[in-house]
Amino acid sequence: MSSKENKMRLFAQGIRDGFPIGLGYLAVSFSLGIAAKQIGITPFQGFLASLTTVASAGQYAGWTVIAAQAPYFEMVLTILVANARYLLMSFALSQRISPKTSLLNRIGVGYGLTDEIFGVSIAREGYLQPVHSYGMFLSSIPLWSIGTALGIIMGNVLPFRVVSALSVSLYAMFIAIIVPPARKDKVIAVLVIISFIASYLVSRLPAFSQISEGTKIIILTVVIAGIASAVKPIREEEDE
Fold first, then answer.
1. Smaller CB count within 10 Å for the chain: N or C?
2. Same domain assignment for residues 99 and 49
3. What dihedral do alpha carbons 20, 26, 29, 30 form, nearest 10°?
4. Residue 176: inside a domain
5. What percentage of the chain's residues is helix, strand, coil (to nearest 5)?
6. Which domain range does residue 208 map to?
7. Do 153 and 128 form a contact (C-beta atoms < 8 A)?
């Protein structure tokens, strides 16, 4: 198979892998659009924000700052904190990218990095191919943007319970991402269980009540990943 044919195959795989993610995004961004309408954001502005930001927590945090008429600096800082977990995901994926990958492609992969796309990418064997990521972006990010615009257009026409029910599909997608690798590796399975328990405890403990959800994710990720890497490190020969 030629290099061009291989890239087309990977791109098609990316579109296939990204489409279920896009369906989940469509439901979640719809509710995000309803929130955007309440502060006067137009459908075009919402579409453009989702297309360029691609982060539910970051966008919602940004719109909260807009509603409060806060300065731009506070908006940038708030979105940076809300999206800080993507820095950790980028560090992890950087270890899975071939050293020959150009800077432009590395930036391109970073543009569409989300929790779900990270889960699919990190579960693939071998080096991460940017063309596969681009396929996932093409079939998921437009649906995220369209969902936001539709939510703004529809406003509060649909009952809140209906919108909440639609968002359940995103959690089902998370399960579909973590189950296969957990079945293959007992260490991953144990880490998944520990992560669930730790996440629940952090959400309930009073000591963490004043910490944002994004910061909680960062703390849990660093602590759990750090312990796992110390107890069960991945040998360099295994990675190769």
1. C
2. yes
3. -150
4. no
5. 80, 0, 20
6. 185-240
7. no
Chain centroid to Cα 231, Å, comes to 27
Say which residue the tokens 């649906």 belong to. Answer: 143
For residue 55, name the pLDDT band (cuts at 50, 70, 90).
Answer: confident
- Three-state SS annotation for 93-144: HHCCECCCCCHHHHHHHHHCCCHHHHHHHHHCCCCECHHHHHHHHHHHHHHH
| Integer CA distances (angstroms), 51 to 29, 108, 137, 146, in order | 11, 14, 10, 9
pLDDT in tens, 205-221: 888 888 766 667 778 87
8 A C-beta contact, residue 149 and residue 36: no
Question: For residue 121, what are the CA distances in angstroms to 57, 95, 143, 165?
Answer: 21, 12, 19, 27
Residues 162 and 190 in one domain: no
